[in-house]
Every structure is written in C-alpha cells, then in structure tokens.
C-alpha cells in the first residue's frame, strides 16, 4: 500500500490541462448525454448518497475511496491520505469517473488488494484519447489513438476487478468464474445508432453506448438470470442460471432473490418465504460481513463472511421445493427481484433517497401443473 501511494504521489505531480466532461458535449453530444446520467458521472462522494454515507462511516477523515470513485482529482494521493478534502467547487471532484480520465488509462498495476490505473496525461501536452475506432480523426481538442485495453475490457479492471479491505477480506469482485475479466464492453457498452461526433467526417452510423447500465436498470436486471421451473415428484425444481460475466453479487449493498408462489384460482396457496427472502436461503443472493465478534458489519470493518450466498459467472443451481397437494391447474410462478440497496442497509444508513431500496422486477417464469 505504501509503495502504491508513493507511486500515486509522484504521478500526481504531472498536470495536463484538465478538460471536464461537459466540454466533450460540444462534439460528442450523444455520448455526453448518456455519460451525464450514468453512475460513472455520479460516482463521487459529492454526488452518490449511498457511497457518501458508507464512506463517512468507513473512513471519516480520509477519502481513500477517491482512487476509484473520484479518480480525476489533481492531488489524488493527498485526498486519499486526508491532507486534502473533497471540494464541491473543484470540477475534477464533481466529475467522478470522467471522460478525460477514463480515456487516458494506458496501464494497470495488478495487486492482491486492488488494482491501480495509470494514465498517459502529461503536463502541458495536448491529450491523446485512446479508443477503438478504426482510422479515427484527430480534433483540435485532442489526439486519438487505438489501445487494446479499449477492446479487451482491461480498461475496466483498474477499478472493477476486486477489492480487499484492510483486514484482507475481499469486499467486491467482478471477475469471472476462472478469476479473469470477461467481455465487460460487449455487455455494458452496446452499439447504438447515431453519430459519434458532430462533424461525422467518417460517416459513422453507430456509437458505443456510455450509459453503463447495471443494477439500477430494469432492462439490465431482466438480463441477469434465466429461471426454469420443472415438476418434480414431490413439488417443483427451480433452476437459476447466472447469465452475467461475473458473480450475481459483485457489491455487498445489493440484495437479489427469486420469489416463488403457487396460486390456485386467485388465491396464493404456497410461497417460498413469508416475511423475508432470506427464509429461503438457497434462492437468495446476499453477502453479510462479520466483525471480530461475529456480528453483522459494514465492508470496511469486515473480518470475514457471516452469510455468503453467491453464484459464479455463467453458473447455475437448482433449488428443490416440496409442495404438498399440488393439483392440476395450479400455477407456479418464479420472479427475479433485485434491490440496488438492501432495504435493511438503506434504513441503517438513513438514506434520504429511498428509491434505490425499491424492488426491480427481473425475468419471470410460470409453470401450470397438469
Ligand atoms: C478499487 C476501486 C474502488 C475503491 C478503492 C472503492 N470502490 Fe466503491 N465501488 C467500486 C466499484 C467498481 C463499484 C461498482 C461496483 C458494483 O456495482 O458492482 C463501487 C461501488 C460502491 C458502492 C455502491 C454505490 C451505489 O450507489 O450503490 C459503495 C457504497 C461503495 N462503492 C463504497 C466505497 C467506499 C466507502 C470506499 C472507500 C472506503 C470505496 N467504495 C472504495 C470501486 C472501488
Ligand atoms: C472539437 C470537437 C471535439 C471535442 C470538444 C472533443 N472531441 Fe473527441 N473526437 C473528435 C473527433 C473529430 C473525433 C474523431 C471521430 C471519428 O473519427 O469519427 C474524436 C474522437 C474521440 C475518441 C475516439 C478515439 C479513438 O481512437 O477511438 C475519443 C475516445 C474521444 N474523442 C474522446 C473525447 C473526450 C473524452 C472529449 C472531452 C474531454 C472529447 N473527445 C472532446 C472531436 C472532439
Ligand atoms: C476509474 C474507475 C473506473 C473505471 C476505469 C471503470 N469504472 Fe465502472 N464504476 C466505477 C465506480 C466507482 C462505479 C460505482 C459508482 C457508484 O455507484 O457510486 C462504477 C459503476 C459501474 C457500473 C454500474 C452502474 C449501475 O448503475 O449499476 C457498471 C455497469 C460499470 N461501472 C461498468 C464499467 C465498465 C464496463 C468499465 C470499462 C469500460 C468501467 N466500468 C470502468 C469505477 C470505474
Ligand atoms: C454476459 C453479459 C455481461 C458481462 C460479460 C459483464 N456483465 Fe456486468 N452485468 C450484466 C448484467 C445483465 C447486469 C445487471 C444485472 C445485475 O446487476 O444484477 C450487470 C451488472 C453489472 C454491475 C452492477 C452490479 C451490481 O450488482 O452492482 C457492474 C458493476 C458490472 N456489471 C460490471 C461489469 C464488468 C466490470 C464486467 C467485465 C469484467 C462485466 N460487468 C461483464 C451483464 C454482464
Ligand atoms: C468508464 C470509462 C469510460 C468513460 C467514463 C467514458 N468512456 Fe468513452 N469509451 C470507453 C470505451 C471502453 C470505449 C470503446 C468502446 C468500444 O469500442 O466498444 C469508448 C469509446 C468512446 C468513443 C468512440 C466511440 C465508439 O463508438 O467507439 C468516444 C468518442 C468516446 N468514448 C467519448 C467519451 C466521452 C465524450 C465521454 C464522457 C462524456 C466518455 N467517452 C466517457 C470508455 C469510457
């Protein structure tokens, strides 16, 4: 950690003239509009309430989270160490994971605790933005160049790969089942019809979407898993298949589960849980950390896992339900339900915006008993 901080310290002595994300709008209107609504733009302590509340509990004096949540900061090492504080007047602090920052990542240092980004910007020079366009034009604002990271998704791995807390407990992970990166760009930056840049000299017809949709999007939640129901000798068997390139739970604030109900006529005659989904542990995906006394705690003070119910990338599992007296015509329905913030945690954090603790319905399947 010391070496990493010294590297960052040396590194932050180079200051190119920063171009804020809003300035890209002049030519990249479509991409800017999408980015401005994305969690990348709202990633910092100044814009994401969920992140702010957790940061205030975890690191009240320092903002070590800046490494990934406010990376465009001029004095990154200073903010991480608590010598500088996040400042709403600083555009680099407001900008979160900004265009300027993301497009100059050209090297990633891999370590056990977490990875670190290195970027190409140099004092006083016109920046070169990396991408994946064939034969890209330059502009008066920047040079353009190709870099393999913007095709093979390595550009995502400086922040998204994995993260350990100070007790070496892994608190987040987006790696696939064999501990490698999957095709993040393929799933999270689908091509959309439209122009990339206002003069469109190369007559391009599509651009890579920059909404970076994930857990907050119903459209994406619908793509998370495939559910299948089959009749078994004493009830039904539910198979849950993870369609994503990472585990179902990548971030410990989340709660995801399958709700299964049996209806006869208009009456519900059976359900897999009554009050809380965790009653049906096998169909619930959740991570709860424990502190040194074994009590539930926040990721920052975790010494281990109290509950770890997850499913690997592209993995599947079958849950068997014994349901007595199923009759012809009974309908068994299983529905995927996802919460960006587990309502229990939202309450504890006293969030003012409770919309993130509302359920989002994903895919659903019905079996009619014959
Ligand atoms: C190594 C990079 C990295 C560091 C350092 C980091 N985070 Fe994150 N954080 C991420 C990524 C990537 C996500 C998105 C993860 C996901 O959704 O699966 C995230 C998401 C979150 C979320 C969920 C936000 C939401 O709106 O639902 C919280 C809360 C959070 N981080 C808290 C923190 C805190 C507190 C710190 C500092 C103590 C921190 N993070 C440090 C990379 C990092
Ligand atoms: C004055 C207009 C203008 C502004 C402002 C501008 N760009 Fe560009 N940008 C262009 C042009 C022109 C291209 C080439 C498009 C093409 O080839 O179709 C381009 C291409 C790119 C590419 C693709 C590079 C590649 O090789 O794949 C990236 C990335 C990029 N711009 C990022 C940015 C970012 C980030 C900002 C804001 C910090 C920005 N641009 C501001 C005009 C501009
Ligand atoms: C500089 C760090 C950084 C880089 C590089 C980065 N991300 Fe992120 N990303 C974050 C952080 C931090 C968050 C969480 C922000 C929050 O919720 O406050 C996030 C959130 C996301 C989300 C979740 C959005 C949601 O609403 O659930 C997706 C999806 C995502 N990133 C995909 C990617 C992909 C794909 C790449 C590579 C092309 C990438 N990210 C590169 C830091 C980064
Ligand atoms: C096969 C498609 C697929 C691939 C590959 C993929 N994702 Fe996802 N990802 C999804 C879907 C669908 C969701 C939304 C559903 C959900 O979050 O439950 C999602 C959600 C996310 C989230 C938000 C998760 C949460 O619960 O907070 C992040 C962050 C993310 N992906 C980052 C990445 C990164 C980084 C990579 C590359 C290592 C990647 N994804 C690869 C499909 C994919
Ligand atoms: C989290 C990292 C990240 C952020 C933030 C980001 N980009 Fe990108 N951008 C990428 C990646 C990766 C690609 C390559 C996608 C591909 O080729 O499929 C890309 C592609 C582009 C391209 C080329 C268009 C294309 O279809 O390939 C332009 C132009 C661009 N980005 C501009 C911007 C601007 C302007 C912003 C801010 C408003 C921005 N980017 C924010 C990662 C990012």
Describe it for me?
The protein has 370 residues and is of the alpha+beta class. It folds into two domains: 207 residues, no CATH class; 150 residues, Immunoglobulin-like (Sandwich). The chain has 13 helices and 18 strands. The strands form six sheets. Strands 11, 12, 13, 14, 15, 17 and 18 form a seven-stranded antiparallel beta sheet that branches. Strands 9-10-16 form a three-stranded antiparallel beta sheet, with no helix packed on it. A two-stranded antiparallel sheet has the order 1-2. The termini are far apart. Bound molecules: heme C (5 copies). The site of one heme C has 26 residues, from α11 and α12.
Question: Helix and strand layout, with pairings?
Answer:
Blueprint: H1 2-11, H2 21-24, H3 29-36, H4 49-58, H5 66-69, H6 76-81, H7 91-94, H8 99-102, E1 105-109, E2 116-119, E3 128-131, E4 143-146, H9 149-152, H10 157-160, E5 162-164, E6 170-173, H11 184-188, E7 191-193, E8 206-208, H12 218-221, E9 225-232, E10 235-242, E11 255-264, E12 267-271, E13 284-290, E14 296-297, E15 304-309, E16 316-322, E17 331-339, H13 343-349, E18 360-368
Parallel strand pairs: 3-4
Antiparallel strand pairs: 1-2, 5-6, 7-8, 9-10, 10-16, 11-12, 11-13, 11-17, 13-14, 13-15, 17-18
This protein binds heme C (HEC) (5 copies).
One heme C binds next to helix 2, helix 3, helix 8 and strand 8.
Total domain modules: 2
* DSSP strand content: 25-35%
Poorly predicted regions: 10-15
Number of helices: 13
Ions and ligands: heme C
Average pLDDT metric: 94
- Helical content (DSSP H or I, runs of 4+): 10-25%
Main sheet record: 7 strands, antiparallel
Which structural class matches the secondary elements? alpha+beta
How many angstroms does the end-to-end distance come to? 62 Å
Q: Choose one word for the global shape.
A: globular
Rg: 23 Å
Number of strands: 18
């Amino acid at each position: 950690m010391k070496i990493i901080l010294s590297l960052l310290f040396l590194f932050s002595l180079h200051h190119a003239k920063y171009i804020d994300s809003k300035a890209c709008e002049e030519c990249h209107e479509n991409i800017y509009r999408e980015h401005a609504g994305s969690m990348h733009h709202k990633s910092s302590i100044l814009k994401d309430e969920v992140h702010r509340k957790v940061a205030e509990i975890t690191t009240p004096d320092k903002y070590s989270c800046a490494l990934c949540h406010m990376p465009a900061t001029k004095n990154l090492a200073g903010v991480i160490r608590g010598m500088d504080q996040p400042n709403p007047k600083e555009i680099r602090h407001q900008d979160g994971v900004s265009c300027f920052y993301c497009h100059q990542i050209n090297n990633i240092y891999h370590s056990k605790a977490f990875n670190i980004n290195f970027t190409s910007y140099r004092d006083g020079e016109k920046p070169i933005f990396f991408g994946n366009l064939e034969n890209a034009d330059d502009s008066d604002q920047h040079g353009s160049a190709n870099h393999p990271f913007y095709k093979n998704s390595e550009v995502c791995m400086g922040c998204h790969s994995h993260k350990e807390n100070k007790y070496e407990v892994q608190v987040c992970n987006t790696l696939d089942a064999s501990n490698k990166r999957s095709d993040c760009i393929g799933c999270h930056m689908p091509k959309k019809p439209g122009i990339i840049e206002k003069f469109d000299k190369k007559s391009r017809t599509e651009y890579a979407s920059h909404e970076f949709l994930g857990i907050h999007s119903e459209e994406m939640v619908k793509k998370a898993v495939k559910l299948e129901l089959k009749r078994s000798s004493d009830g039904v068997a539910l198979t849950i298949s993870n369609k994503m390139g990472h585990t179902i739970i990548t971030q410990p604030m989340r709660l995801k589960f399958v709700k299964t109900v049996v209806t006869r006529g208009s009456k519900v005659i059976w359900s897999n849980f009554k009050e809380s989904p965790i009653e049906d542990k096998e169909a619930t995906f959740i991570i709860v950390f424990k502190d040194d006394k074994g009590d539930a705690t926040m990721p920052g003070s975790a010494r281990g896992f109290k509950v770890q119910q997850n499913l690997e990338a592209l993995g599947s599992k079958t849950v068997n339900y014994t349901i007595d007296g199923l009759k012809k015509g009974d309908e068994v329905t299983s529905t995927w339900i996802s919460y960006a913030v587990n309502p229990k945690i939202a309450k504890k954090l006293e969030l003012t915006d409770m919309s993130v603790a509302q359920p989002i319905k994903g895919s659903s399947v019905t079996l009619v008993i014959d």
